[in-house]
Amino acid sequence: MRRYGFHGTSFLYTAKRAAVLLGKDPFKTNLIIAHLGNGSSINAVKDGCSLDTSMGVTPLEGLVMGTRAGDADMAMPFYVMRKTGMSAAEMENALNKKSGLVGITGKYADRRDIQKAKLEGDRRALLAQDIEAYRVNKYIGAYQAVLGRVDALVFTAGVGEFAFFMREKILNGLEGLGIIFDPGKNEMSHTRNTETIISKPESKIPIYIIPTDEELVMTEDAYALMAGTYDVHTRFTYSFQSKDYVNKGRAAGLKDELARNPDLASIIAKPL
């Protein structure tokens, strides 16, 4: 069995874009990228290539997710099956569909619902947030140890891009790793129309929010395959690797957002 990992298209896009923002050769760039959504995983990128990823042969391993348990003692399913009489198929379904945040809260997988419940005093909602953030914390620390040098920490996907309250929980206490976020910038960043930076100037490791674009990667891959020009990403250049790249659809949305909130301009990440 081979470790597979998932979210590779998202990690490819965000790794290439982070290198552009850092002004670095993508194959001399080390990153920790957190793709946080209903399904979540985190990736250690060394010299532009995936070194380690939190998901395994299936998406069940790794972070606590919307309905997936993530990392667990391998003996735990057997214990539960013996105690409850659950079949292997029922246990697999429970770990994938009835665990994670929905299992902890008893009803919620959507982080917005969990945040609302927490603010209303739901202790299980608070516990779910604490467990999710703790698991991400552990992976960030582990991947920093594995990489040695980290050029940036990147958040992406629905939760990573929009749930500033979850990013705050994850980032609190990482000062010892050289990761220092600005709470005001973090709260301001909840858009899919631009790349933002939420770290303080004194942070040794910049923190970027890079909206993923898996569709663009797939489109360019498919076009290159049909044109006979496709190659592996280490020998292929995507349009979004240019410093001048602009997503026209997102640019139109950003213009509207800036009209409503001019302060957003202060956190837009520009290539170094």
Explain this structure.
The chain has 272 residues and is α/β, with parallel strands linked by helices. The chain has one domain: ATPase, nucleotide binding domain (Nucleotidyltransferase, domain 5, 2-Layer Sandwich), CATH 3.30.420.40. 44% of the residues lie in helices and 10% in strands. The protein has a 6-stranded mixed sheet, with helices on both faces. A hairpin with a 5-residue loop joins strand 1 and strand 2. Helix 6 packs across helix 8. The N and C termini lie far apart (42 Å). The mean pLDDT is 97.
Quick summary:
With 272 residues, this protein is α/β, with parallel strands linked by helices. The chain has eleven helices and six strands.
What layout of secondary structure does this protein have?
Elements: H1 8-22, E1 31-35, E2 41-46, E3 49-53, H2 76-84, H3 88-97, H4 100-105, H5 111-119, H6 123-147, E4 152-156, H7 157-162, H8 164-171, H9 183-188, E5 196-197, E6 207-209, H10 214-227, H11 248-260
Parallel strand pairs: 1-4, 4-6
Antiparallel strand pairs: 1-2, 2-3, 5-6
- Spatially, the strands of the biggest sheet line up as 3-2-1-4-6-5
The residue-averaged pLDDT reads 97
Number of strands: 6
Tally the helices: what do you get? 11
Task: Sum up the structure in keywords.
272 residues, alpha/beta, Nucleotidyltransferase, domain 5, six-stranded mixed beta sheet
